[in-house]
Amino acid sequence: FFFFFFFSRSLFVYPQNLMEEDWYFAGVGDVHGHMTRMVSLLANWEALHGTPLQFVLQVGDFECHRHEQDMSTMACPSKHRQLGDFHLFASGARSFPWPVYFIGGNHEPWGFLDELQEQGQVAPNCTFLGRVGHTELRGLGVFGISGIHREETYDKTRPDVTQIEYRSKKDYIGFTREEITQALWETRRVDVLVVHDWPGDIIDDATRDRLLGGTGARIRQPGNAPIRTVVDELKPQLVLCGHMHIAFRAWVAHGADDSHTVHTTPPPCPAAAGSRVTAVCCLAHINAVGPFAVFRVRAGRVAELTADDCRVLLARAQEKACGTSTATTTTTTT
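Given the sequence above, the corresponding structure tokens read:
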């Protein structure tokens, strides 16, 4: 469950005297209806490290099907069409231990989600961020863009949800140029950008072929240009994405001269005024290696936990457990 830490890198370095302000949240990759699996993975991480999560951000292909009717409005090959267990959370039979905020991917019950118009709760403690939506969580600005880049529908007006029964379900899976323009005009602070597909041009061909298999002639280049444009314009601290079902990390250094340079390891913190670094965290499928990552927030700055960070938390949790056990033993003996 914890292989994802091998992909982790430290994004920022902060003074130790701010440790008391630390808090944590998780980012989760494509869930595809496996809600119980997601909850189990995150709850196990909390228990092992003795560290509570404040909320969860999920990158789409959430598949919040309440029933067969919802599932019928999803664009998906029949062999992959499964109800999943979201209905148990929607009915209250099971619950999400933390607030969960998600965007839509290309496999969603859009007949259900588009009825919400904008943001809305789909189950207790579970909120859809909308087609394009902003929210503030514990002082962090979180911005979500649902869907993927689909050339056929990018410059078209999306059909009304009332027509979904009669239209191709693929007409609903993409974001539009209008929605990207809305994102580019966002004036509120954006610390975390949540999207489904990767931003474009963050991976070289050799790495792509190694991770995805095959050669460039056989597989498409991950990512898309509109989302990359949003990243370069908004310059968030963190981008969370999924879609490709593999874990990958990249960093985009935004120069004061409006340059944007991709790195495969964390670049030095920029010293020049107006410079900034965006960490891009591509998360894997819920049943693959690297399905989630945990982030620390310290004085408003976001950092993905490294393997060393996790070992420190684990050691503290074990020390606390041993101390509690010793105190209990002493009391009992007395």
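Residues 1-19 have pLDDT under 50 and may be disordered. Try to locate this feature in the token string yourself.
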